[in-house]
Amino acid sequence: MSTLQKDVIVYNNKPINFLGDMLCLTDMWKAAEKPAGIEPAEWQRSADGARFIEFVAENQNMGISHVIKSKSGKGGGTWAHWQIAFAYAKKLSPEFHMWVNQAAREKMLAIAGGVQRAFPAHIPRKRMPSVTSVFRSRFTIGRLIGLDDNQAAIAAGRACEKKCGENPLPDMGLTYLSSPENERLLTATEIAHELKLPGKQPGQAGNALMKDAGLHSDSREKGKIIWTPTEYGMQFAFLRDVGKAHSDGSVQSYKWSHRVLPILRDHIAKSGLAMPRYERGLAPVPFVKTPEEVS
């Protein structure tokens, strides 16, 4: 090896020595920040590494000791044929693999042609954080500070665009997510007033109408009626803390986007029936047809 021309390439300000068509795997490992479990000796003993080394030796019609060897003392380390070195670089990292492929080959070709052509040293680029990790962490923070799911998702998407250069929500077809900041939210009672539902118990009437329209369903828990949005209704529902006069604190209850109003009006109109009557909000009494005029 002493008769061969020695040169060096630089990655992350760390030299990688090569001699003729041999590169120092130890230098490559150090330049790639010494990833654990992928030291040259470990990789050489691995099934994939040993198989590839044997293949290169056979292809080059050389003994294995001529395509990969260890050297002690100054300038020592594990040295390998450039094809083996490139395979090892791929194991270290995709970015490092791509850079070594170009930089080492350029340098070796320049030496072989008798022309020393400078190759720019690798300038580490700032790694963008993972969109998944940024979205998950920001969404979690949003929920911790009291945002609802939609608000937290909107905020997490904006954080991804700022930190990672992309917002995953539009890619998922979510070009609009409603949130309380741009919604007028209504209780079942307020919905009943908006629609001018008859009866002395507007809250029950509003709940029954929304059940009839498939927006939520009811169940009983400890003698109380629990209203839960259906899968269809979830896009209009927001879970809020609501103070109760009979309670020591607050309970969670759903409020509804004003966007349900045209849906409910359409539901009433399409039924072709008169405004329904409701009894105790448990279930709508069947619609009563508008009386026909007697001629």
Tell me about this structure.
There is one protein chain. By secondary structure, the protein is α+β, with helices and mostly antiparallel strands. It folds into three domains: 6-112, Mlu1-box Binding Protein, DNA-binding Domain; 131-177, no CATH class; 185-284, no CATH class. The protein has helices at residues 25-31, 40-45, 47-59, 64-67, 82-92, 94-112, 131-144, 149-164, 168-171, 188-194, 202-212, 260-270, and strands at 6-11, 14-19, 22-24, 68-71, 77-81, 185-186, 216-221, 224-229, 237-243, 250-257, 278-279, 283-284. A hairpin with a 3-residue loop joins β11 and β12. The termini are far apart.
Give the oligomeric state of the chains in this entry, treating copies of one chain as homo and distinct chains as hetero: single chain
Percent of residues in beta strands?
15-25%
Helix content: 40-55%
How large is the radius of gyration? Answer: 35 Å
- Low-confidence parts lasting 5 or more residues at pLDDT below 50? 115-123, 243-251, 276-292
Strand order, largest beta sheet: 1-2-3-5-4
Features:
three-stranded antiparallel beta sheet, rod-shaped, 12 strands, Mlu1-box Binding Protein, DNA-binding Domain, 295 residues, 12 helices
Detail the topology: elements first, then pairings.
Blueprint: E1 6-11, E2 14-19, E3 22-24, H1 25-31, H2 40-45, H3 47-59, H4 64-67, E4 68-71, E5 77-81, H5 82-92, H6 94-112, H7 131-144, H8 149-164, H9 168-171, E6 185-186, H10 188-194, H11 202-212, E7 216-221, E8 224-229, E9 237-243, E10 250-257, H12 260-270, E11 278-279, E12 283-284
Antiparallel strand pairs: 1-2, 2-3, 3-5, 4-5, 6-10, 7-8, 9-10, 11-12
